[in-house]
Amino acid sequence: MIFDELNLLLTNGAKKAGYNENISATFSNLPKASDFQCNDCFALAKKLGKNPFEMAEEIVKNIDKNDNYIFEVARPAFINIKLTDEKLKKLGQEFLLDKRGGVPCHKDKKKVLLDYGGANVAKALHVGHLRSPIIGESLKRLYRFLGDEVIADVHLGDWGLQMGLTELQLFLDGNLDYYFNQGEEKEITLAMLNEAYPKASARKNTDAKFKEEADEWTLKIQKKEEPYYTIYKKIREVSVKEIKKHYSELGAEFDLWFGESDAQDYIDEAIKIIEDKGLSRLSDGALVVDVAIEGENIPIPKTSDDEVQRYKNPMPPAILKKYNGGVLYATTDIATILMRNQMFKDLDRIEYIVDLRQKNHFTQVFRVCKMSGISPEKQELLHIGYGTMNGKDGKPFKTRSGDTIKLEDIIDLLVNRAGEKLKSNGVKYNRSLALAIGVGAMKFGDLINNVDKDYVFDIDKFLSFEGKTGPYLQYTAVRINSILNKTGVTEAKDFAIYNEETKDIIKNILKLNSSYEICYTNKTLSPLCLASYNLASAFSTFYNNVNVINEKDEKKKQSYIALLMLVKKKLCQALDILAIDIPEKM
């Protein structure tokens, strides 16, 4: 909201100077010189054939006098803006008393369905399943904080070939004899699933007959034939119980636990809509929809950095049904969008937090939905693609033997290493405490990067209590709580400016507040992470230079306590959006 004030002052100044143009301010690139700056005089002078420096001077001379800002012109034609101490005091007081800490809520609120998590039933969760729940949970909290109505759906992968592969392998291993009236009933366990799917997945690549039989088995599940469908439900129940446990440890919470299977009843309707529009055709027995746009080029993924970028054209058709009548991921995703629009009226956006490598898949699905009207014209379909989590060698994070690391092993690793940190700090080991620190460290290490970029999983760096890390922010909040507990003060209302450290904290809160909207627009949490770190760093400087507990001037002390409460409020607010818990001690 401070930019609304500044932009109004600048624009009115320009109009009084004879320039009927809107001009605006941004945060300064040189914080030591000014708090904000306006660079618009360069473009405006070029447009009007004026001298930019003289234009800037004219505008500043015509800005209404006030007690909040100091406007100065700097060559070649910058308008520098500084906050007065009076304005900083007002802001501190406002942020302290405002329930939202000065972050405005959207007036134009949207209804959003957020699809994230996306674990596959019958498969053990692994490192590749980490980023979607971490990013999705934070975006959900951000959207809700800014006023959107958000429905979170885990959208499990529970209806594809992996189900047929798993059941067939369990059958061949003798674990399903009971369902075919051939023996005693065996409980389907997680251990069975963790063994069956990898074995079947590897076999399908070398055994064509096995793969064909798995396709047929999958089709029987999708047609809800018995006993295949009953077995499927048993597998889903066992698998989902484990998935919920791990997502809970990651702090990911969902409104809906739907899967691809829930869209099954909408598939025929979706295909009929597409056929009635004349969009589909048969190709080698398969039902497809052409989604290519004339002239577009699709990049072919490079196998090395030295390879010349190549392209294929056009975008291949979306396959709705295979030669045997079986459906694919594209079919269920299209049917899911139909289901969502029938279940939840007036959805403004449907967003998918899925691996960046699925870009072409979602392009096909979205185009079919728009061409057929399954997705209304005004509805936005958005794929937020994320990069991979890599090891220090820059390659996808794996075990030394090259196997994919299970999610439960990563969580155990984080908990154990966080426990070691606590022990070295003289804090007695507690798993819930170690989990909050370890998982918080991993989340911050992920979210501080732009969503679409790969990043390195460096547990030593993530768990450091110094620098741009989750534990540093957690420790800052814990330290503030400790000081406040020692003062015994539970409420403070009087805010004042006594030193440069306080001014710096307020300025960093302004940037933190501004970061929420940047995150919303760009669909990434990196700006919020960086702004939170900068605020924590500014508080650290204050803490090193000001002894709150021993301050003899009672008026100053109360103001310092108010400042601590404000910083705590803002850090707690930010960490809650990031789904990072604040421990009691560290």
Structure characteristics:
single chain; 586 residues; four-stranded antiparallel beta sheet; four-stranded parallel beta sheet; 15 strands; globular
Q: The biggest beta sheet, please? A: 4 strands, antiparallel
Q: What structural class do the secondary elements suggest?
A: alpha/beta
* Spatial gap, N to C terminus: 36 Å
CA-based shape: globular
What fraction of the residues are assigned to beta strands by DSSP? 5-15%
Q: Give the radius of gyration.
A: 29 Å
The poorly predicted ranges are none
Strand order of the biggest β-sheet: 1-2-4-3
Strand segment tally: 15
Count of alpha/pi helices: 19
Mean pLDDT: 94
How would you describe the oligomerization state of the chains in this entry? single chain
Which range best describes the helical content: under 10%, 10-25%, 25-40%, 40-55%, 55-70% or over 70%? 40-55%
Q: What does the model show?
A:
The protein has 586 residues and is of the alpha/beta class. The protein has 19 helices and 15 strands. The chain has helices at residues 2-16, 40-48, 52-61, 85-97, 131-145, 161-172, 190-204, 208-222, 228-249, 264-276, 329-343, 359-372, 407-424, 431-447, 459-462, 470-487, 500-522, 526-545, 554-577; strands spanning 26-27, 36-38, 69-74, 78-83, 111-115, 149-153, 280-283, 286-289, 298-300, 310-312, 318-321, 349-355, 380-386, 389-390, 455-456. The strands form 5 sheets. It has a 4-stranded antiparallel β-sheet with strand order 1-2-4-3. It has a 4-stranded parallel β-sheet with strand order 6-5-12-13, with helices on both faces. A 3-stranded antiparallel β-sheet has the order 7-8-11. β7 (280-283) and β8 (286-289) form a beta hairpin. α10 (264-276) packs across α11. The chain is globular and about 85 Å long. The relative contact order is 0.10. The model has no long low-confidence stretch (mean pLDDT 94).
